[in-house]
Specification:
8 helices; 197 residues; 0% strand; 72% helix; mainly alpha
């Protein structure tokens, strides 16, 4: 592109991908082997699901070609171009590639951040469950406390909304002084993710 922002754009993609990698590594560290006979407890099942989802995101290969499914990359890109101003219109072809790369990176980071927040909620559930059970197996005497843990987990998972994830990531970027002018909107990310996963 000819607007003098190539270095900033390259740095931004690198920042987003570095954050994606860091979050992915954090998720991988949260591995728990459930006690015998308890692998089907809600938190353990969800924790395993989080690991599977994170691995799926890591396994996705970037494709610079057309976006998958019904995602209208050209329309979304043109909306982004209009938002970014005249400088982009001068080099529309190159900017479309850049936006596609940034969109892919932002979607990966968004997806693993959401998985990470769910993983952390599951890990709190594991810790609380360990405290409730104190080495015992689930039984009638601790059933009510375990049910309350499941309810708490459900509440925490319900709080992991798309808006929360987006605004947390955006807030971190701003606090870190990262360039956010060209980051895709939540609407764009969600539209792309609907066809991606």
């Amino acid at each position: 592109m000819t607007d003098g922002l190539n270095d900033a754009r390259a740095m931004r993609v690198a920042e987003v991908m570095t954050h994606f990698r860091t979050i992915s590594q954090q998720i991988a560290q949260y591995r728990v082997i459930p006690p015998a006979g308890q692998a089907q407890a809600r938190g353990f099942v969800l924790l395993n699901q989080c690991h599977v989802e994170a691995q799926a995101v890591l396994a996705l290969v970037f494709d610079a070609g057309p976006a998958p499914g019904n995602f209208n990359a050209e329309e979304q890109t043109k909306k982004q171009l209009q938002r970014y101003g005249d400088a982009f219109r001068e080099a529309e072809h190159d900017s479309m590639k850049y936006i596609r790369i940034l969109l892919d990176a932002a979607c990966r980071r968004f997806r693993v951040q959401k998985i990470y927040l769910r993983t952390v909620a599951c890990m709190r559930w594991v810790q609380r469950r360990t405290q409730v059970l104190q080495g015992q197996v689930p039984n009638a005497s601790n059933a009510a406390a375990l049910a309350q843990l499941d309810n708490t987990l459900n509440s925490e998972l319900a709080a992991v909304t798309d808006q929360r994830v987006f605004y947390e990531l955006n807030g971190r970027d701003i606090a870190a002084g990262n360039w956010t002018a060209e980051m895709p909107s939540l609407e764009t990310i969600l539209s792309y993710l609907q066809t991606w996963f």
